[in-house]
Structures are given as C-alpha cells and as structure tokens.
Amino acid sequence: QRNFAEFTTEDCWALGFNKANLLCSSCDQLGKFNLDAIRDHCKECCHQDETATTEKKYARAVLEVCTCKFGAYPQIQAFIKSHRPLQFPNLQIKYVRGLDPIIKLYDKDGTLQETVAIEKWNTDSVEEFLNTHLMPKDDDYLTTNMV
Question: Angle CA(144)–CA(146)–CA(147) in degrees, nearest 5?
C-alpha cells in the first residue's frame, strides 16, 4: 500500500531518483545501508514491482527518444522504423533531444500516469508492453470518421 503523495519525474530527479526505473522493492532495501532517511522520498518516486495480476490499461502512450541515441538502441530504432507502431493508433512517437528511450502512459484525460525506461528492451518487448498496457482503439471511430 502506498500512503505517500507521489512526486513528479522532475521532483524525483532532483532528489537523485530515476522515477522511470525505480522499483519500490529497492526502497525497502535502504534500511540495510542506514539510509532510512531517504526511504520516504524513494517510496514517492518508485513503481510497484510487477506482481499485480490485473494489468493497468492506459488510453494513450508516447514513446520518447532522441534520434541521436538510435546507434545505442538499435532495437528501439527498429521498432520505430517498422510497421509495428501502426498497430497502435493511440501511440505517439516523439523525438526529444538527448533523451534515452522511455514510454509515457496517459489516462483518458491526458494526465501522465507512468513513465517507463525501455533502453534495455527489444522490439518484441516494446510491442508486448503496448499490447498489454494500451487500451484497444475504439471501433466506433471508423463510423464517426467516415466520409
């Protein structure tokens, strides 16, 4: 259970935590190193470890990366340049200068809910993650957009 007010990605970065890939189980280990003083802040910046049986679904996702990083992340480049993103009409590819690859997940109101670091993922992992966490597109858009 989380009883904390969750910090923004920027707040966490200022505190020395990378919210995109900090697991709450890591925060629980801080006591072993006499670092209980930063445990509460850590808990406000972490993601629950993947033990939930029901996966949360999001209305929209944005994959952000710098094209300058494609050499370091050829699998992410391969995903972006392939047909795979076309399967996800609620996925946006956004090029951000200097950024390592991340996926931002938004609710139906456009509020950022989660940021996930994907630099170690391959093309199949990205596709599987999006299939699991993105809501399927509404079929009724076909009828509302008919000419």
Answer: 130
3-state helix, strand, coil in the chain (%, to 5): 40, 20, 45
User: How far is 96 from 28, CA to CA, in rounded Å?
Assistant: 33
The pTM (predicted TM-score) of the whole model is 0.61
Q: How far apart (Å, rounded) are the C-alpha atoms in residues 131 and 86?
A: 12
Q: Per residue of the chain (147 residues), what is the pLDDT tens digit?
A: 444 567 888 888 899 988 878 888 889 889 888 999 999 999 998 887 765 545 688 999 999 999 999 999 999 999 999 999 999 999 999 999 999 999 999 999 999 999 999 998 999 999 999 998 998 866 444 444 444
Cβ(94)–Cβ(63) below 8 Å = yes
Same domain, 35 and 77: no
3-state DSSP assignment of residue 11:
helix
Domain extent for 27: 9-45
Judgement on whether residues 65 and 26 belong to the same structural domain of the protein: no
**Number of compact structural domains in the chain:** 2
CATH number for the domain that contains residue 71: 3.40.30.50
